[in-house]
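Example record

One chain of 219 residues, shown exactly as stored in the release files.
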Amino acid sequence: MFASENRLEQAREIARLVRELADIVPVAVCSGNHDDAGRLVSHDRASVYQWFIDLGTHRNIITDGSTRKLENFIVTTVPYHCSKEHTSIWFDRGSTIRKQTGIPWIILHHVPAKTGSGVSGEESEAAEVLATYRPDYFVSGHSHSFPYTTGQNWNQKLGESSLLVPGQLLEASFPNHIKLNTESGELSWHTTSETWMPEDGLYDHLVLKLASFDRLFSR
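Predicted structure tokens for this chain:
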């Protein structure tokens, strides 16, 4: 969240848009490094920001810090700020459900998995999670330029898992996103430009992008 309003006001507006979208389709959300609005409260043996817990009262929202079955998928949403010990709660739960049911498992994890020289501690930890639990899909954000960087792609196969990172273009009128056909397994990347647009001091107005995404599903 980068707009001039304080973070709690932004969180309320984002929550309103997410609820509107959830009135139409199921929504899963995980927090990122700009979502620290309000207070942390105890939730499922870990701590989650209150505004995410409030989102979870909507029957169609899988909120931060959850593992749930959604039709023929398992969905795990990982809070950005939680320690490895806390996140294992939701990873272990997802792994158990997959063993019991055999259905595909999607993890929403803000920071993408990376290995090799020059990676951050967060990226290395994400890679460790991916290698340990081997979800079918590991969906991340954080790195706006990820799919535009040489050697990277919006869809990468890492072992048995697909790492999906849509990236983001701050000047675009519509947010990058990835579509997954839950019946065929077909994946597609949707962006206004396949060429990176330098940010150069621009600020990400997430509320406007969510509003644009909401309008897509309202048609």
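Notes: Confidence is low (pLDDT under 50) at residues 204-208.
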